[in-house]
Amino acid sequence: MPDITVSALGLDYSDKTVLDNVDFTAHEGEFLTLLGPSGCGKTTTLMSIAGLTRPTRGAITCGNDILFDSARSIDRPPERRNCGVVFQSYAIWPHKSVAENVAYPLQLRKVPKGEIRSRVHEALSMVGLEGLADRYPYQLSGGQQQRVALARAVTYSPGVLLLDEPLSNLDAKLREQARNWLKEFQSAVGLTTIFVTHDQDEALALSDRIIVMNDGRIEQAGAPEEIYHQPSTPFVASFLGSANLLPGTVLGKAGGLTQVRLSGDGSTLSVREDSQRGAVLVMARPEDIEIGTATQDAARYPVQGRITSRMFVGSEFRYVVQCGEHDIAVAARERWDIGLVRLRFRPELCRLFPVDSTNSAGATPATSDHAREATHA
Hints:
The protein is an alpha+beta fold. It is built from ten helices and 21 strands.
């Protein structure tokens, strides 16, 4: 399966830039996810690859085939791009059976009837629907309809698979099952796949690589573990997972660690990272903060606070700890009562961002999602 390369892609609508110099390659057989909030440009990028949106500038290639090149006035129509597309709404024909829906792309390509029957059976077997060929969409569950859309997208052996939030219409339990199935399917088929979602859990679970987009630009690209543990901007830190972003000032080094005094609270944290100076944001994931008793050693547990909220979510407890002017989110397996505690931030897992990075990232110092959820619970 070929690489998909997007080069300096841009799209302007009057005075608004929807895509701004988007540049990446989806490698052969890779599951690449475009992740970001609504309106960030991820679906527009996907539809540009499919040929359903025409960019203003840039180029798109699939292997050696040029799909779009503004400089050379090349814009191959969608039906000649060999892309399988699964839409958020699935877009399967309600008046056609499962087999007829899957056969439709082959009929458009005037494939012989005998071959159509064989390829439809093969595609339905791949998605586990071989016994449902004669059913109609209204007789199927949401998960089964999603599989019909996927079978239709792969039945003519496309060069690349484009998925536009195909799991968003499923309920939570079915969505988790569909995630596992989709990952197994993509790995078995080996299709180069570009997946669009705003769901961070989906992105982390499914992707070989994630591209985080914001306001029409790429904020960061990398493996899920890299982006989660080493976000390059406050926006990435807060969007992919939950993150506490606490303003502070770098004081210097002590014991081989960078010392940061938190604003308002006055507590001093030790952080392994030493690339920043002056005013900073300290990023700490809720699961990277440890809770201790109010009498715990202040040198080891430097931040004093009060648990003001607790939620049990099955695998863990989520707490909001009020520390001066900050509400800090903490995730722990242990059950703690409302009251005074001390916190330890794991130095090797904290990150520092310069304060001016909040402007470029489109983010400001914020309480994490977990803290907000618990506060409103």
